[in-house]
Structure to design on (92 residues):
């Protein structure tokens, strides 16, 4: 998961500091190729509002689901991202 220090860490999209009152979208590192255009947003925190307006939101969600959503974890669960950036857990 992205390392986040409230009041110090900046949103990966707008650069403004993230504080307690802000809703967030954050992921663990899931894009391993540094040349991938979305790599810098993998393992990053973003304001939910910024994420909703981000032109690459749909592509980011699809990439997350292509990489992470296909994994069946040891406990039989799968993690998928909804269009709003919420990550859900379900039994495979």
């Amino acid at each position: 998961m992205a390392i986040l220090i409230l009041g110090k860490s900046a949103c990966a999209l707008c650069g403004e500091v993230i504080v307690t009152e802000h809703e967030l979208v954050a992921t663990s590192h899931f894009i391993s190729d540094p040349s991938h255009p979305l790599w810098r947003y993998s393992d990053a925190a973003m304001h939910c509002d910024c994420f909703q307006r981000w032109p690459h939101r749909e592509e980011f969600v699809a990439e997350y689901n292509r990489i992470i959503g296909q994994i069946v974890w040891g406990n039989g669960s799968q993690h998928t991202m909804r269009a709003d950036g919420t990550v859900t857990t379900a039994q495979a």
